[in-house]
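Feature request, filed as a ticket because there's no other form

It would be nice if the structure record came with a short human-readable summary line next to the tokens. Right now we just get the raw output. Example of a typical job, pasted below so the devs can see what we mean:
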Amino acid sequence: MGLQMTDKQQNLVIPDDEYNRKLVDNVHPRDWVNPVPASRYHLVVIGAGTAGLVSAAGAAGLGAKVALIERQLMGGDCLNVGCVPSKGIIAAARAWHAARKAHDFGGPVTSDPGNFGAAMTRMRRIRADISPHDSAARFRDLGIDVFIGSGCFTSNNQIEVDGKQLSFRRAVIATGARASTPMIPGLENVTYLTNETIFTLTALPSRLGIIGAGPIGSEMSQAFARLGSCVSLFEMAEHVLPREDPDAAEIVQKSMEADGIDLQLATNVLRVEQNDTKISVHFERLGEIYEETFDQLLVTVGRTPNIENLGLEAAGVQYGPEGITINDRLQTTNSKVFACGDVASADKFTHVADAQARIVIKNALFFGRARSSLLVVPWCTHTSPEVAHVGLYEKDALDLGYKVDTLTVPFSEVDRALLEGEEAGFLRVHLKKGSDRILGATMVATHAGDMIGELCLAITAKVGLSKIAGTIHPYPTQAEVIKKAADKWQRTKLTPTVKQLFEFWFRIFS
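Raw output as currently delivered:
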């Protein structure tokens, strides 16, 4: 008997076209038949997003007997409603923007509005083409017992799925998170979008309201503005991307304003209403009350861990509003059960879920002592320009007792950035005072996410700026900004005393 999709699952994969059908055939196949459970598994994983897939594949690759349970779409948020579709739309928006800016480089002038439906179709096609990597069939072929259904603990060493009991030596909870619902009066009566549903659109909203100027809200507001929507962005903080340094956020903010986004900052949304197909947002700013009306409303205010209906009490696993309670080794209050990814992590990124899953494999199956607190965590917000960060901000470093030296190199000093018209931005590196040890770095640049990796490696491997200064970087590239920062640090060593020694040397040498 084939599996039926719930209404929620169906809503994530509309429209019903060839690409979404291919996606579903891979990540929630309707004709899937769950296997007969083994007598006991080395590892049972609940959730087939990034954390769950990496945990399952890694353990099975080492020879463990593994079961993997997923109730919705394999691939989780990243494939279906997160990284993959969002970056597909951002890529389209950047391409459209580049076409309009071509005249700045002597290129043709274009006023063509573009085809939003075609851009969304392209995204769905690429997502479907990526989906075999996360498919039920692939993980079955890796030797994993894949169960499509809801998993629920029935004891401290058993999980029930599809009416069958799975016994385990170790288990991993990797059920992820979902979009939070903010306490805005009237929101429960409004048909609004989240990151889980915005990628189902086939027609461009003429007017799009977005609540929340964090990474998702900022990325989507800029993308849809460049695709042709009239966008208003509402945020309680005084600038977009409140988590980032204010001067980094300011550069992104100016770019968003140049794209025509109506930024309603330091704003309190009082209530929302829906009349037929229109949605009204009532908000207060600087003591005045305003109202704006939209065709669609996107809400991007936080994430809520998926902890419901898992039988956590039966397993002796503690949890709270922030998710599953874990220690530094990702172990829950049940020593046999681990948790990783968005359901338990404060850093809700795909790459963190991947890294934590690798820790789980070591600690759950091999008595490892790997610690999640030792991870060097980078992240990137894919606005234009991008904001990428790794390690500590200056305030965090000071709070930890470090004395800090800070170096900043603007991209206006980087030849390749000037040639490409991408000089807005900077690299900022925080060092332990008096040394070349990198504590953290922030980069604002068109390709910041692609370039921050060198600094991630430097912090992880404890490589200081002196080594980077001695490393040849290709010219002309924007990544040369890192070498420039290292050279800038080298010049700080040329103190007055050192200069006097050099002067003495050259008098002798002459």
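Something like this underneath would help us a lot:
The first helix runs from residue 7 to 12.
The CA atoms of residues 17 and 226 lie 26 Å apart.
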